[in-house]
C-alpha cells in the first residue's frame, strides 16, 4: 500500500477530511518507533523500512478512529475533520494535561509553537477521568487552521517574557565540589599551577571529589575542567581508581553487625 | 624525547622522601631533578594516614632518627607555602588487656630512657583524654609528641618549595636504566630521555628493588599493603591519633603484642584512627604481602571495621565512604635503607622506610643532602646501611 | 493550607493521589504534616521547605539535589542521628528532624 | 571471623530495564538468577517514566515506562527470579566476591557470573548558585513529581533541550508547575522534535543558543540569569526551581573496581567498560548492559540486557553456544533497527568503535 509521509500527506488528509476525520501525522524524524502502525486496524499507517522510517499515511483508507492518536508516544498524530462544513473544521488532539477542559467549553487552539490560533468549542472529549489513558479532545476551529492545530490549552494566557537585564560584571565564585566546598577559583589555581598529570593526583590534592557524595557529581565536571584548563596536552587523563564501598555504608554494617 | 638533559643530582621518586631530599639539596644550592614515574604522591605517600607516631618506633637508632626528624619539622613547615596541616596532637596507644598494658609499661620505661616522653594512663585518666573509649580498654600509653600531618600536602609543599629554588620535576617519567661506567653513575635513561648525572638518589619506595636491579644491587624493599577505611567528614570528635597495642605488635613484630586471632595475624591487623582536618576519620589498618596489588578486600574491610568498633564503639555510626590501600616500602627489619652502594659511586639509597616515611622524611632529606654534597653525614647512618642485611 | 500547596492530588496520568495516613513530624521543633510512606525530604518540599542543611564550611543553604540518595545534600539530623539521607528515609509519626548548621570554622 | 559468603549462579546488579531483561532471558533457559537493586521497588528509571515509550512491541512501545516496569518485573517473578530489593552492591572484588548492603546486614555472595546493569547517573553543571536549594537534577524533580507526587516549586526553568529536559518539562506541566522556559547552549533542539513539540505547544519557549550564567537567591533559588551566546544579552527568569538535564553518564564504577578495561566515549556519556557485542567485558565472568555500558534509550537497554543474559547463560552452561549465538543475532537485528535513526548515529558509531577495540 502506498502512503505519504509528513507534510506530503497533509494535502491528501485535507482533501479526504471533507468525508470525515483523517489522521494527520506530524512525525518526520527517523525515530525508532512503530506503535501507530501496530495500532491501525485499517493498515493505513505503514513504516516503509524498519522502525525508524517515518510513518506514511494512506488517507484513502484511514477511518479516523483515533487509535493512533491515543497511542503515539510522541503525541504527534492528530485528526482533521472538515465534514461539518460551514467553514469550520474539527481537530482532535491527544491531551495529557490536567486543566479542566469541559465538553462544550471554550479553549485555545494553538499551533506547534504554542501560538494562539483560535478560540474554539470542545465538541468531544474521550478518555477523561481514566488515568493512564491519553485523552482525545476535539476542538472546532475555522477551517484555515485545520492543518495547523497541534494543541488545545485550557490555560488561556501566555507566559510573560523574561526581563532583559544588564550583563553581570564579574563571575561570582562558587563551590565546585559541593561536599568539600572547594571553590572554583581555587580549583583552577590548583589545576593551572599544580601541573598534575592525572585526575587522581588532582583529586588527591584539591580534594574535589573526595566528599560524602563520593564524587558522584563533580568527578565528571572535574574531568572536563581539567581537560579544558590543560588543553595543550593531548592525553588520557587516567580515571579514578574505584574502591569499595561505592555507596556509603555504616561502619557497624561493614563490621558485620546486624540491623 | 631526544634532548639530553642533565642535572647535578637526580632523585628517582616523587614521594615524601624524594621531595624532602630535593628540598634540602636545593637549600644547599644543588641542581636537582626529580623523576617520577606517575605523579607526586602517587605511591605510599599519597595512600597512607597522617600518623606521626613516635612511640611506635623501634628503640635505638630508629627512634633517635625519628626524634631528629621531628625536631626539623617545625622549621620546614614554617618555610612551606602549602599548609601541611601539622597538628601536634599527641597519640594514644590503647591496651585491650592487662598483658598488653604491662608490655606497654615496660616499653614506656625504655622509650623514656631513649629520650621520648611517654606516660601510661589508667582507665580513669584515659577516659578524661578519650571520653568515649570502650569500657574494655584497660589503659593506654600516651605520647605527647605524637602528631599528625597531611602527607600529601606535606610532600607537595616540599616539592613545590624545591621547585621554587630551581628543582625540576619530571612526572610520568619512568626510569629504564642507569648507566654506570668506571664504577660511577653517569646517566639515567628514562622514558623522557637520558639525563646526565653523576649523583642519583633512589627514593623510589616500593619501586626501589627494580631500580637496584639496574645497577645490579639487591635492594630488599618489597611492597607491604596497608588498607584503610575513610569515613564521612564530621565535626572534630577525635583530638588525638589513636592506635591499638596490636598495631605496634604487628608493626614492630613484637610477639607479646600480636593479635590473638589467626585471621588478624594473617592480615597484620592493627587498629589506628585519626581525624583529618577535612573531618574524615581514617581507620586502619593491615600489613599484608600481596605484591603490587592495591585492591581493598572484603575480608580486611570487615576486619578493620569490627576491630575499630572494639576500641571506639561510637565510631560504628559513621558512614564509610571510601577505602584505599597503600603499599609501604617494607624492609626486612622495618628500618630505612640509607647510604651509598659499594662499587657504584654516586648512587645513594633513601628507601625502605616501611610505614615511617612521612615521619622520617625530614631527617632523611637532610642526611641525603649532606651525603650527596659532602660525602658525610651529621648523624651516623651505618645502622641503616644496605649491608646490615645478610 | 500549606499542607497541600505542593502536593499533586490530581494527575492526568497517575490519577488521584491515594490518601495516605497523615502523620506529624517536627522540623527544628515546628510541626509539619506529612503522609505515611513518603520520604522526609518530600514531606519538607510539600510544606514548602527547601533548605535541608547548611554546608559545613561556608554554611550555605543547601537542598535536595538528586532525590535518589546520592548527593547527600539532603542529609539531616533525624531523631538525633546525624547525616540521615532524608530523600530515602520515610517519615514516621513524631519524628524529629533538625537542620544541620555547618560545623567547620 | 570473616563474613559468610553465599554461592550464587547468576547475579544481576540493577533491576531496571536492562537488568530485568537480562534476568528474564537467563532464567528462561534455566539459570538460577538473583537480582539486587538498591531501591525498594524494581523498575529502575522506568518507575518514574510516566510517558509512553518509543520502540516496537518488543520494547513495550506505546506503553508508559511505569507499565513496562511492572510487566518486566512480573515476568521475572513468574520465572522464579530471586529479587532482592533495598540492597546496594558496595563492591565487586577480584576474588569474585560481591559485597552487598542488604536490608538487615552486610553480606557477601560469590556468583558464577555477574551482569552489571546499574544504569546511569545525571551529569551536572557547576556554575555560580548551583548549590542553592531549588537547583536540582531533572531526575530529582521527576522523582518528586512522579513518585512522591510533590512539586519541587511553582516556577521551573529547565536547562537542556535533550529528551530528558523536554520530557521532564512536560511532566512538570502535567504535575501543575509552571515551566518558564527550556534553555540550551546548542543552536538546535537536542531531543526529538516530537518531544519539543509537546512542550512548545503548551506555550513553553525554548531558548536555544543560551548559556546559564548564574542562579541567585538568598535562602533558595529566586532567579536565574541566562545569556544569549550570540549577542550577550542577559535574560532574567524568575524561578524557584532550576532543573539540570545536561546528560547522563554511565554508572559503571563496579565494573571499574573489578578492573574491567575502561574506555572513554563521549557519545556514550563518558567512561564505559569495554565490551563486545555479546556484552562481555574484559573481565570474565562480568557482563555489562544498558546505560552502564553507554547511555542510550531504555529500549536499547532492554535488548542489551537480553544479550547479556544470554551470554551469561551460555557461560554458565545453560545454553549451548550455537543456540546462544542465534538468540543474540536475533536481538542484534532488533538493536540495529533501534539504532538506525540519525539520533543514534553517534552512539552507534561509538559502540562499533568500542566492539572493535
TrEMBL record, chain B:
UniProt keywords, alphabetically: Oxidoreductase
Keyword field contains Nucleotide-binding: no
Pfam family of the protein (one): DAO
One annotated GO molecular function: oxidoreductase activity
Example of a GO cellular component annotation carried by this entry: cytoplasm
Keyword Oxidoreductase applies: yes
InterPro entries noted in UniProt: FAD-dep_OxRdtase, FAD/NAD-bd_sf
FAD dependent oxidoreductase domain span: 9-371
Stated name of the protein: FAD dependent oxidoreductase domain-containing protein
Automatic annotation (TrEMBL), chain C:
GO molecular function annotations of the record: iron-sulfur cluster binding; oxidoreductase activity
The keyword ATP-binding belongs to this UniProt entry's keyword annotation: no
Gene3D superfamilies, A to Z: 2Fe-2S iron-sulphur cluster binding domain, sarcosine oxidase, alpha subunit, N-terminal domain
The entry's keywords: Oxidoreductase
Protein name as it appears in the record: (2Fe-2S)-binding protein
From TrEMBL, chain D:
Database matches in PANTHER family: ANAEROBIC GLYCEROL-3-PHOSPHATE DEHYDROGENASE SUBUNIT B
Residue ranges constituting the FAD/NAD(P)-binding domain according to the UniProt record: 9-305
UniProtKB keywords: Oxidoreductase
Molecular functions (GO terms): oxidoreductase activity
Protein name per Swiss-Prot or TrEMBL: FAD/NAD(P)-binding domain-containing protein
Amino acid at each position: 500500500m502506498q502512503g505519504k509521509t509528513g507534510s506530503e500527506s497533509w494535502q491528501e488528509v485535507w482533501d479526504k477530511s471533507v468525508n470525515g476525520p483523517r489522521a494527520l501525522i506530524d512525525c518526520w524524524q527517523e525515530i525508532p518507533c512503530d506503535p501507530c502502525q501496530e495500532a491501525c486496524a485499517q493498515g493505513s499507517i505503514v513504516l516503509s523500512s524498519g522502525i525508524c522510517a517515518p510513518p506514511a499515511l494512506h488517507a484513502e483508507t484511514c477511518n479516523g478512529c483515533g487509535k493512533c492518536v491515543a497511542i503515539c508516544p510522541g503525541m504527534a498524530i492528530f485528526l482533521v475533520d472538515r465534514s461539518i462544513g460551514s467553514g469550520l473544521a474539527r481537530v482532535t488532539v491527544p491531551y495529557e494535561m490536567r486543566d479542566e477542559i469541559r465538553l462544550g467549553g471554550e479553549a485555545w487552539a494553538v499551533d506547534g509553537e504554542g501560538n494562539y490560533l483560535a478560540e474554539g468549542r470542545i465538541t468531544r472529549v474521550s478518555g477523561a477521568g481514566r488515568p493512564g489513558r491519553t485523552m482525545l479532545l476535539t476542538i472546532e476551529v475555522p477551517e484555515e487552521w485545520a492543518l495547523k492545530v497541534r494543541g488545545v490549552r485550557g490555560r488561556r494566557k501566555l507566559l510573560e517574557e523574561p526581563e532583559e537585564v544588564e550583563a553581570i560584571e564579574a563571575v561570582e565564585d562558587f563551590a565546585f565540589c559541593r561536599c568539600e566546598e572547594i571553590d572554583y577559583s581555587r580549583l583552577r589555581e590548583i589545576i593551572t599551577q599544580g601541573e598534575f598529570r592525572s585526575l587522581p593526583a588532582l583529586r588527591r590534592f584539591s580534594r574535589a571529589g573526595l566528599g560524602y557524595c563520593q564524587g558522584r557529581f563533580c568527578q565528571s565536571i572535574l574531568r572536563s575542567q581539567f581537560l579544558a584548563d590543560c588543553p595543550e596536552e593531548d592525553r588520557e587523563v587516567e580515571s579514578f581508581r574505584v574502591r569499595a564501598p561505592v555507596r556509603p555504608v555504616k561502619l557497624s554494617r561493614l563490621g558485620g553487625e546486624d540491623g | 624525547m631526544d634532548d639530553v638533559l642533565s642535572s647535578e643530582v637526580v632523585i628517582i621518586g616523587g614521594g615524601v622522601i624524594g621531595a624532602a631530599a630535593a628540598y634540602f639539596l636545593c637549600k644547599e644550592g644543588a641542581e636537582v631533578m626529580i623523576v617520577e614515574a606517575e605523579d607526586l604522591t602517587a605511591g605510599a605517600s599519597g595512600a597512607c594516614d597522617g600518623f606521626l607516631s613516635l612511640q611506635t618506633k623501634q628503640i635505638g637508632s630508629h627512634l633517635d632518627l625519628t626524634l631528629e626528624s621531628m625536631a626539623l619539622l617545625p622549621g620546614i613547615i614554617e618555610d612551606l607555602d602549602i599548609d601541611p596541616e601539622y597538628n601536634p596532637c599527641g597519640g594514644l596507644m590503647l591496651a585491650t588487656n592487662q598483658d598488653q598494658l604491662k608490655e606497654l609499661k615496660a616499653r614506656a620505661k625504655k622509650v623514656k630512657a631513649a629520650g621520648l616522653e611517654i606516660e601510661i594512663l589508667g582507665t580513669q585518666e584515659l577516659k578524661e583524654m578519650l571520653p568515649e573509649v570502650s569500657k574494655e580498654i584497660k589503659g593506654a600509653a600516651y605520647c605527647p609528641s605524637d602528631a599528625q600531618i597531611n602527607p600529601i600536602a606535606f610532600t607537595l609543599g616540599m616539592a613545590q618549595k624545591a621547585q621554587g629554588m630551581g628543582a625540576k620535576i619530571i612526572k610520568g617519567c619512568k626510569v629504564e636504566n642507569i648507566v654506570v661506567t668506571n664504577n660511577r653513575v653517569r646517566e639515567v635513561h628514562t622514558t623522557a630521555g637520558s639525563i646526565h648525572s653523576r649523583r642519583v638518589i633512589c627514593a623510589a619506595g616500593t619501586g626501589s628493588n627494580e631500580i637496584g636491579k639496574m645497577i645490579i644491587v639487591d635492594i630488599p624493599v618489597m611492597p607491604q599493603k596497608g588498607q584503610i577505611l575513610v569515613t564521612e567528614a564530621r565535626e572534630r570528635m577525635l583530638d588525638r591519633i589513636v592506635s591499638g597495642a596490636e598495631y605496634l605488635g604487628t608493626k614492630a613484630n613484637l610477639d607479646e603484642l600480636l593479635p590473638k586471632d589467626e585471621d588478624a595475624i594473617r592480615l597484620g591487623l592493627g587498629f589506628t584512627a585519626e581525624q583529618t582536618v577535612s573531618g574524615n576519620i581514617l581507620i586502619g589498618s593491615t600489613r599484608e604481602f600481596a605484591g603490587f596489588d592495591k585492591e581493598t578486600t572484603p575480608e580486611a574491610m570487615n576486619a578493620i571495621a569490627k576491630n575499630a568498633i572494639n576500641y571506639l564503639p561510637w565510631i560504628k555510626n559513621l558512614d564509610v565512604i571510601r577505602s584505599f590501600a597503600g603499599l609501604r616500602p617494607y624492609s626486612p627489619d622495618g628500618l630505612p635503607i640509607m647510604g651509598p652502594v659499594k662499587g657504584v659511586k654516586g648512587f645513594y639509597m633513601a628507601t625502605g622506610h616501611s610505614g615511617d616515611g612521612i615521619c622520617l622524611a625530614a631527617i632523611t632529606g637532610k642526611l641525603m643532602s649532606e651525603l650527596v654534597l659532602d660525602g658525610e653525614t651529621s648523624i651516623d647512618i651505618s645502622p641503616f646501611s644496605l649491608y646490615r642485611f645478610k | 493550607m500549606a499542607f497541600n500547596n505542593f502536593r499533586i492530588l490530581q494527575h492526568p496520568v497517575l490519577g488521584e493521589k491515594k490518601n495516605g495516613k497523615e502523620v506529624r513530624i517536627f522540623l527544628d521543633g515546628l510541626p509539619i504534616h506529612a503522609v505515611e510512606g513518603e520520604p522526609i525530604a518530600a514531606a519538607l518540599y510539600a510544606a514548602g521547605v527547601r533548605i535541608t542543611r547548611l554546608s559545613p564550611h561556608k554554611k550555605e543553604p543547601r537542598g535536595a539535589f538528586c532525590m535518589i540518595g546520592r548527593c547527600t545534600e539532603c542529609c539531616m539530623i533525624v531523631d538525633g542521628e546525624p547525616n540521615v539521607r532524608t530523600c530515602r528515609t520515610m517519615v514516621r509519626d513524631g519524628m524529629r528532624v533538625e537542620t544541620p548548621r555547618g560545623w567547620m570554622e | 571471623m570473616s563474613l559468610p559468603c553465599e554461592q550464587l549462579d547468576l547475579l544481576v546488579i540493577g533491576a531496571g530495564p536492562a537488568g530485568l531483561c537480562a534476568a528474564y532471558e537467563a532464567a528462561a533457559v534455566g539459570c538460577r538468577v538473583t537480582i539486587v537493586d538498591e531501591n525498594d521497588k524494581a523498575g529502575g528509571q522506568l518507575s518514574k517514566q510516566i510517558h509512553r515509550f518509543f520502540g516496537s512491541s518488543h520494547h513495550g512501545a506505546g506503553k508508559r515506562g511505569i507499565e513496562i516496569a511492572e510487566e518486566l518485573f512480573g515476568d521475572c517473578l513468574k520465572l522464579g527470579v530471586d529479587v532482592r530489593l533495598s540492597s546496594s552492591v558496595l563492591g565487586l572484588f577480584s576474588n569474585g566476591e560481591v559485597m552487598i548492603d542488604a536490608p538487615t546486614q552486610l553480606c557477601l555472595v560469590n556468583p558464577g557470573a555477574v551482569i552489571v546493569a546499574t544504569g546511569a547517573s545525571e551529569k551536572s553543571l557547576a556554575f555560580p548558585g548551583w548549590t542553592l536549594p531549588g537547583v536540582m537534577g531533572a531526575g530529582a524533580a521527576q522523582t518528586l513529581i512522579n513518585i512522591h507526587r510533590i512539586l519541587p516549586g511553582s516556577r521551573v526553568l529547565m536547562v537542556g533541550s535533550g529528551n530528558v529536559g523536554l520530557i521532564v518539562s512536560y511532566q512538570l506541566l502535567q504535575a501543575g508547575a509552571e515551566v518558564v522556559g527550556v534553555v540550551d547552549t546548542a543552536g538546535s533542539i537536542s531531543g526529538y522534535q516530537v518531544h519539543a513539540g509537546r512542550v512548545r505547544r503548551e506555550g513553553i519557549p525554548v531558548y536555544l543558543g543560551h548559556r546559564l550564567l548564574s542562579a541567585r537567591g538568598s535562602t533558595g533559588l529566586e532567579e536565574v540569569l541566562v545569556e544569549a551566546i550570540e549577542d550577550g544579552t542577559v535574560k532574567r527568569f524568575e524561578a524557584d526551581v532550576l532543573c539540570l538535564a545536561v546528560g547522563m553518564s554511565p554508572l559503571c564504577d563496579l565494573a571499574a573496581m573489578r578492573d574491567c578495561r575502561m574506555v572513554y566515549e563521549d557519545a556514550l556519556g563518558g567512561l564505559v567498560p569495554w565490551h563486545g557485542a555479546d556484552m562481555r567485558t574484559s573481565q570474565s565472568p562480568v557482563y555489562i548492559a544498558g546505560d552502564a555500558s553507554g547511555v542510550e534509550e531504555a529500549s536499547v537497554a532492554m535488548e542489551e540486557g537480553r544479550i547479556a543474559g544470554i551470554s551469561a547463560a551460555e557461560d554458565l552452561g545453560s545454553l549451548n553456544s550455537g543456540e546462544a549465538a542465534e538468540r543474540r543475532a536475533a536481538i542484534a537485528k532488533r538493536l540495529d533497527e533501534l539504532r538506525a535513526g540519525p539520533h543514534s548515529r553517534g552512539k552507534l558509531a561509538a559502540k562499533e568503535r568500542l566492539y572493535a577495540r
